[in-house]
Amino acid sequence: MAHRDVGPPGGVNEQVNESLTDVEVVARVLGGDGEAFGILIRRYEPGLLRFATRMLGSADAAADAVAESLVRAYRHLGQCRDPGHLRSWLYRITGNRCRSHLARRHMSDVPLSEVPATALADHADSWTALERSEQVALVERALAKLPTEKREAFVLKHVEGLSYEEMAEVTGARIPTLKMRVHRAREALVVALGALV
Amino acid sequence: MKQLLLVALVALVPGTVCAQGPGATKLAGRIPPEAVPAIDSLIAAAVAESLPTEPLVQKALEGSAKGIPADRLVNGVRRGLVQLREARVLVGRALPGQPQPEGHVAAVAAALARGLPPAIAERMLTMATDEPPAPALHAAADLVAHRFNPDSAADLLVAAHAMGLHGERLLDVAVAADQELQRGGGRTPADALARVRAMLPNVPTPKVAVTPHGKTGS
Amino acid sequence: MTDRLDDAIELLKTTPAMSVESRVMAEVRRISGPTPRRRVFTWPRIATVGLALAAGLAAILLIPRTPDRLTPGESEGIAQFVGHFPGARSVEVVGSFNNWSRGLLHLRDENHDGIWHAAAVLPAGQHEYMFVVDGERWVTDPLAERFVDDGFGAGRENSVLIVRPAGQR
Fold this sequence. Notes:
Chain B is mostly helical. Chain B is built from 11 helices and no strands. The N and C termini of chain B lie far apart (58 Å). Chain C contains 3 helices and 7 strands; from the N terminus they run αααβββββββ. Chain C has helices at residues 2-12, 21-32, 51-62; strands at 76-84, 91-95, 115-123, 125-133, 137-139, 146-149, 157-163.
């Protein structure tokens, strides 16, 4: 597993680099400056890791999926048809990767957080009285029960904050379909969260 | 005396890599010694379950050639065995009550490894029960890899098959769909599939000259 | 209950405390080679190379390279491998068709222009492979149209080739 990098010392240069647009960074990378790809990693890995963790239910699996996705993105950067929509393209690759991971294991194997199930089931206190880690575990459990497509739509919309247009680019689904998936996911989560506590 | 005992033990232990099978011949001397017992055991399990062993042998050879550490090499082979088992379940569902050709199981496992959803693999198997399934499976995997909706992709391939496009021609259908999508201009995956559907059965064969893998590879 | 859903969404927004940057950049540097700034002709850059070079490269790819002495049988086909590795000393193809054995299928760069190529008769069907550059660097063929994770947990991908029987064309 990777450790969090301190990052290269750079002062003003680093600030300038980090303010480059995606189009500018992509042009640099395609021009031979492989190190510039680090700018894109730092810019997008938090969201991609969050997305993959929610899709796969495991931080380790998410790290693998996101690392694989970013390497694949580097290899195929020349094929990104519109660097102005790089964010959607990266989420698309990562979503694809997560689906591949999920296809290789059964839905019931999606691992949950570290909090033991018995601790959750026996807890009779109200939601607000729970420890944050217990709340997270309950939410993850509820999310894991959703079918992949609804989970993906819900996370992209409400956690990652993508627009429906971006979500359509990421998933290939039509906007009305995505709206329905998000709506059904919300309904299911409300019920699941209510039943768990 | 010790050597005699050792030979006797090796002969008695089933599935010893050094002792038996065409896979054993290929693997002999090629995989790290510390991985031999586990790889042996996995291949023996495949034999016992009437699963194809060649994919596992290939995976072991691959990992060894790449210098993969023994524990990850074993995990890679183990993953292959799990995929073969999943594939066999799918083939059994698609072809109930029929003998399961070994080629079918291996082809489905390869497609699952490429990320083809199991439900789509099953549809491809039931589409052409008396044909080798690999081209249809790979065509579907190609479309899914290019982020076409899996069900819509399968619908297109089923339609193409119904119009007489069989075997490797289904790969041409997948290529055509991707080419339509690459044309851009705001074209969505659904648009691209619709365009290819409209041209069935006259899907072009990809031009020989532009395929880096030559006249007969794709 | 929607308050609880809103709380849940906020909890889900927690960013995991980990980074894959060093791991990804290690792979990026491995793919790029030791001097990425001087490596003008990497495959991801082909799309942005000047028109003259792109046209020249396209001409090379379009020239039929039918090997005269390779005669595929009925259930075999010819596969041609092309790779752009300027400065490489050797390039070989290692894959399922040669039991992942080294030293069996070497590419050649006869014109010393960094374009390496080889052809082989292979059984019809699916094959996985990678290039090995300078005897030690395993590289996924960027021109391949299909890829599959090699399953060993390091994010490497094999290229996938589907050889069609020669008799079909």
